[in-house]
Amino acid sequence: MTIELRPLSYALGAEVRGLDLTNRCSDADWRAVHSAFLKHGVLLFRGQKITREQHIAFSRRFGELDSHESLPLDRDRTHPELLMVTNDAKEDGSPSNSRYTGQMWHSDLSFTLAPALGSLLRAVAVPPVGGDTLFANMYLAYETLSQRMQGIVDDLHGIHVPERKNAGLSAHWEAENRRLNPPVAQPVVRVHPETDRKALYIGEKVKCFEGMTPEESRPLIEFLLRHATRPQFVFRHQWQADDLLLWDNRCTAHLALGDYDPRHRRHLERTTVLGAASGHVANLESIA
Ligand code: SIN
C-alpha cells in the first residue's frame, strides 16, 4: 500500500496522498481508499491531472454511475455520467443554469427515489478566492441530539423538492426540473448500509415533514439545520485546480458557497454514484 491519510478537520474529511489517478489504483490501495471513505466521509485527492475518462473510471470503482436523467440539461452531451457545475456561459451566450448548483445545504439527489451514494467532484478551474464548499458530518448531527429528539425525528419523513437557490435560471430549465422531479418524501434518519450508523438526512430542500403543515414543520427543520451545520461538525474545503473531492452522501451534507467574483471562472465536473432506492413520491394532500 502506498497511500497516506491526513485528517482535514475534527469532524470529517481526510486528504489521500501518494495516489496518482492517471494510473489504475491497485486493489490494495483501493481497499485503503474505500475504508478511509467510510471512516472520514470526505476524501481529497490533490493534483490529479486526470481526463474525463479517468475520472469516470475511478468513480466506477464505487458503484454504478448515475446518467443524470433527473438533471439532463446540466450533464455533458457526450458523457452523461458527468454533471457540469459551471459558470461558463452557454453556447448562445446566455448564463449557465448550473452556476448556482449546490448553494443550499443538501445531499446529492435527495429529491429523487435513488439518492446518491457518493459524488466525485473534479475542479477544472476555480476562482482565486472564494467558492469554497462546506461539508457537515450528519452522523454527529444525529448522535448529539437528545434521546427524546432522536425518537421524534426517527419517525419523520421530509419532503424534498428539486429547487436551486437564486433566481434567474432559464424558464425552460425550471419547468423541466419541476416536470422531472416531483416532491419526494425521504426518511429524516437513515441507517448507513455499510457502517450501520444512523445519520440525519435533512437539508434546505426539505420543505415540510410528511403529514405536517409547512408552518408546523419549519421550526423543527430550522433547528435541525442549525444543529447539523454547527462549526464543530463542519469541514470547509478551499478548492485548487486539479482537486478531486469524493464524499459520502449517506452521512454528509454539503453547501457550495457563492462568495466569489462571478467574472472568475468556476468550472467543476461531477460524477454521481447511484445509491439504494429510498423514499416515495410525496403525498402532498398530507401537507394540508
Ligand atoms: C454540488 O453540490 O455537487 C456542487 C458543489 C460545489 O460546486 O462546490
What's the arrangement of secondary structure elements?
Layout: E1 4-7, E2 14-17, H1 27-40, E3 42-45, H2 52-60, E4 83-86, E5 116-125, E6 133-137, H3 138-143, H4 147-154, E7 157-160, H5 171-180, E8 184-187, E9 189-191, E10 198-200, E11 206-209, H6 214-228, E12 234-237, E13 244-248, E14 252-256, E15 267-274, E16 280-281
Parallel strand pairs: 2-3
Antiparallel strand pairs: 1-2, 3-13, 4-15, 5-13, 5-15, 6-12, 6-14, 7-8, 7-11, 8-16, 9-10
The structure holds succinic acid (SIN).
How would you characterize this protein structure?
The protein has 6 helices and 16 strands. It is α+β, with helices and mostly antiparallel strands and 288 residues long. It has one domain (4-275): 4-Layer Sandwich (Double-stranded beta-helix), CATH 3.60.130.10. The strands form 4 sheets. A 7-stranded mixed β-sheet has the order 1-2-3-13-5-15-4, covered by helices on one side. The longest helix has 15 residues, at 214-228. Bound molecules: succinic acid.
Total number of beta strands: 16
How much of the sequence lies in strands comes to 25-35%
CATH architecture: 4-Layer Sandwich
Tell me the helix content: 10-25%
Return residue spans where pLDDT drops below 50 for at least 5 consecutive residues: none
Assembly classification: single chain
Question: Would you identify the CATH H-level superfamily?
Answer: Clavaminate synthase-like
Summarize model confidence as the mean pLDDT. Answer: 95
Q: Report Rg.
A: 18 Å
CATH class call: Alpha Beta
The ordered H/E elements are EEHEHEEEHHEHEEEEHEEEEE
Q: Largest sheet, order of strands side by side?
A: 1-2-3-13-5-15-4
Shape annotation? globular
> Main sheet?
7 strands, mixed
